[in-house]
Design brief:
elongated, five-stranded antiparallel β-sheet, 8 strands, mainly beta, Immunoglobulin-like
């Protein structure tokens, strides 16, 4: 599959943040001319398998992570499924994440602050 559907993370929100827990949400938009499924994602050591079908132009909000991360990897992966040549085809989008350092009562923690997609990988059928 040489041309991937145009699917992007429009924004990332951190909700319910504290020293002990953060909830990280992403809004994903299908900017392609065909239906795409968001099938799984991995972020902060947590992997979620959920299926969200996006028609062209549609968006979905997904919770990427909820908890107290033990480390702060700088990448997030989202796996998509799209129809191609009459069959299902999978691709993976890798994103670079940036973090802001925060302090609360002398306790250091990190908050996701920015995202940039840097690679799409063909995962086959």
């Amino acid at each position: 599959m040489s041309n991937f559907p145009v699917v992007r993370v429009e924004r990332v929100d951190v909700r319910n943040e504290s020293v002990s827990k953060i909830d990280v949400w992403a809004r994903i938009k299908n900017d392609s001319d065909r239906q795409v499924k968001v099938v799984s994602w991995e972020y902060l050591g947590s992997m979620r398998n959920e299926s969200h079908t996006l028609n062209p132009g549609n968006t979905v909000d997904v919770m990427l992570y909820s908890g107290a991360p033990k480390n702060y990897p700088d990448q997030m992966y989202i796996r998509y499924e799209a129809e191609h040549d009459g069959g299902r085809h999978y691709f993976l989008a890798r994103h670079q994440a940036k973090f802001d350092e925060r302090y609360n009562n002398d306790t250091k923690w990190y908050r996701p602050s920015d995202w940039m997609e840097f690679q799409r990988v063909d995962r086959g059928n």
